[in-house]
Design brief:
about 450 residues; about 40% helix; alpha/beta; eleven-stranded mixed beta sheet
């Protein structure tokens, strides 16, 4: 195994035992990044020399007994919406050309305090307002979408040990599923968003993209906790989320939807997720058939909230310099100016009712298991998916359809790889739980992961 293939947990243990130097690890990942980046185009900027300096400092800290924890010396990337002092935050847009942050975002500061080493900023669909991230290619097939808006291909290919993304309708979990890695959207408000460029303030979340469930827990432990500078930040204290070694799930009730999550889903995706759900039952969990509430309102509510909030955020710049936006994003922002206030208020009402209905549902079960996305990665120039019954669905609508409920309701959601289709493309299973129920999701995801052989990285 190459050093760039190591998980956070494995690398942290080797660093703690002084069997691995942070500099050696960072150098290996930088070498891998240089090898694959021309194929992936995952990064906006790479700060190689700064990363090497930080790795040398981490190496000295470890040598003198000043180890800060499991992220100390671990190389990572951050989505280009997240402020890092002195670094560019362009949101992959000409609108932000030349912009440099004058302070760290809360999450960047917390990762820096934990000793993580920043390799660079990663592409997003412009201002995160899209699901394809057209600059970036899928790690398993460069002719296919990596999806977005957070990408995921760098982690899948070994060009970062972990990454930090944002999720407004699925933008952590969707690319994670399509690139064969783990993506966690925490409970709304658990991870502060101060210093993170907003798409839709009532739907935005920040969370990790990692190679294993245990790694996601380690990163979440560093990120979670109250920050009064984010009005939505929860007062709930941070916690240690690392799952234990036990793999049995006796006593847990796993909800299996009989509606919505398996409507218009590729047969190979459905088969893989149902097989993974059966594996949870073999570990002791009780499978319970459930009905997902208010499904006919999901996409209308998602768009009804996101579109006007995004337009409000960009109101001045889209009027002043519309030519600097990409056409697809500019059209959405201009469309938001035409939405009646009543539509936004109805979407807010729908969200409230949906949150209440999901709370009742999650009183019946501990976790819901379902596909993360209805299909594996499409070709980069595909605009729609045609289902066997003749229904045609836009790519963005299809990919966000199964992930959006967790953004609307604010519940935590974890995407875990569950295999590949016959074309060799990754498939993801989504686990959804109660608010602040991350520990349970991570326990279930980790237990499932332990039943599977070690996942390989994408060859690119």
């Amino acid at each position: 195994m190459q050093l760039y293939e190591l998980s956070i947990a494995a690398a942290a243990e080797a660093i703690r035992a002084r069997e691995l130097s942070p500099f050696e690890l960072v150098e290996s990942v930088l070498d891998r990044l240089e090898q694959v980046e021309r194929h992936l185009q995952a990064y906006v900027t790479v700060a190689a020399e700064e990363a090497r300096r930080a790795a040398r400092e981490a190496e000295q800290d470890v040598a003198t007994g000043r180890l800060r924890g499991p992220l100390h010396g671990i190389p990572m990337g951050q989505k280009d919406l997240i402020d890092v002092v002195g670094a560019a935050t362009t949101a992959s847009s000409r609108v932000r050309a030349g912009h440099r942050a004058d302070a760290d975002s809360t999450v960047a500061a917390r990762l820096a305090a934990a000793g993580a080493v920043l390799l660079g900023k990663m592409h997003t669909h412009e201002f995160a307002y899209g699901l394809t991230t057209p600059q970036t290619h899928n790690a398993w097939d460069r002719d296919r979408v990596a999806c977005g808006s957070s990408g995921g291909s760098a982690v899948a290919a070994g060009a970062a040990t972990f990454a930090l993304g944002t999720d407004t309708g699925g933008s952590i979990r969707v690319p994670s599923a399509l690139n064969g890695v783990v993506g966690l959207k925490p409970t709304y408000g658990l991870v502060p968003r101060h210093g993170v460029t907003s798409l839709s303030w009532s739907l935005d979340h920040v969370g990790p993209i990692t190679r294993t469930v245990e790694d996601a827990a380690l990163v979440l432990s560093a990120l979670a906790g109250h920050d009064p500078r984010d009005p939505a930040s929860l007062a709930a204290p941070g916690s240690h989320y690392r799952p234990g070694g036990a793999t049995e799930l006796t006593g847990l009730r796993i909800g299996v939807p009989h509606n919505y999550y398996y409507d218009h889903v590729d047969p190979e995706v459905e088969a893989a997720v149902r097989l993974a759900t059966a594996e949870l039952e073999s570990l002791g969990a009780q499978l319970v058939e459930v009905e997902i509430p208010m499904t006919r309102y999901v996409q209308a509510t998602q768009w009804g909230l996101m579109v006007p909030e995004a337009t409000a955020y960009h109101e001045r710049t889209v009027r002043a310099v519309p030519e600097l936006y990409q056409a697809d994003v500019r059209i959405l922002l201009e469309a938001g100016e035409l939405m009646p206030a009543g539509d936004y208020l109805r979407a807010q009402r729908s969200r409230t009712l949906m949150q209440q209905a999901w709370a009742r549902l999650l009183n019946e079960v501990d976790v819901i298991a379902a596909p993360t996305v209805p299909a594996t990665a499409v070709m980069a120039d595909d605009e729609a998916i045609t289902w066997p019954d003749g229904t045609v669905e836009g790519v963005a609508d299809a990919y966000v359809r199964l992930s959006a409920p967790a953004n609307i309701t604010g519940v935590p959601s974890l995407s875990v790889p569950v295999g590949h289709d016959t074309a060799g493309l990754p498939i993801g299973m989504q686990l959804l739980g109660r608010p602040l129920g991350e520990a349970v999701l991570l326990r279930v995801g980790h237990a499932y992961e332990q039943t599977r052989p070690a996942r390989r990285l994408a060859a690119v």
